[in-house]
Model the fold of this input.
Amino acid sequence: MRRNLFWLSNDQWQRIAPLLPTDVRGKERVDDRRVISGILHVLKSGCRWCDCPPDYGPPTTIDPAVIILKIARPVSILD
Done:
């Protein structure tokens, strides 16, 4: 694993996890913590979503969520 990647701390994850849906139907969910860490990496670093390191998952998983986060701006819960 690369050292310069952003990963949510346990405390940050404990505040976010209850906000995520639990009764999702259809496709099996990916690792939410990994994807949200990837989204925050894109927002913090300013890189393009397609350049997001593969450690966070495929760009096709991260991209739609980046758009939602840019609109909603819920990053303040991580302060």
User: Anything to note?
Assistant: The mean pLDDT is 79.
